[in-house]
Request: fold
Amino acid sequence: MPEDELSRSSHSNPGKSLVNGIKTNPASNSPKGTLSVPMGPPVYVDLAYIPNHCSGKNTDPEFFKRVRASYYVVSGNDAANGEPSRAVLDALLEGKSQWGENLQVTLIPTHDTEVTREWYQQTHEKQQELNIMVLASSSTVVMQDESFPACKIEF
Reply:
């Protein structure tokens, strides 16, 4: 981009700036309601719950680039609200592909959903390439006349 175009574009878009080469607009009211957070080194954790029951409302590839977990829990079980979201599961693949290291990642769905099954089947080759394992469990937790699916996680 020529210098005069660059100058014009920055004047025509006040409030937009570059953070580590990425356009940001701190004053925007994005549909995801995200705040502009300066880029930093990724955070490594053992276990992370995918936010908002794996809904696409506020989880994108950037989450998976920045929050690098050995285990991600997918707790969504509400198809009417898009939980779990196929876009979020795809974002895991996209984010993990940019890690630059082939660490083992385990995805733990707490419910057997059609979205999760279809995603697993359609992206199985990519999962293997990225060293992502998806757990399936028939375990059940029973508490005070209530039962629900569960996974056992060992560290």
In short: The beta strands are 17-19, 22-24, 43-49, 67-74, 105-109, 132-134, 139-143, 146-150.
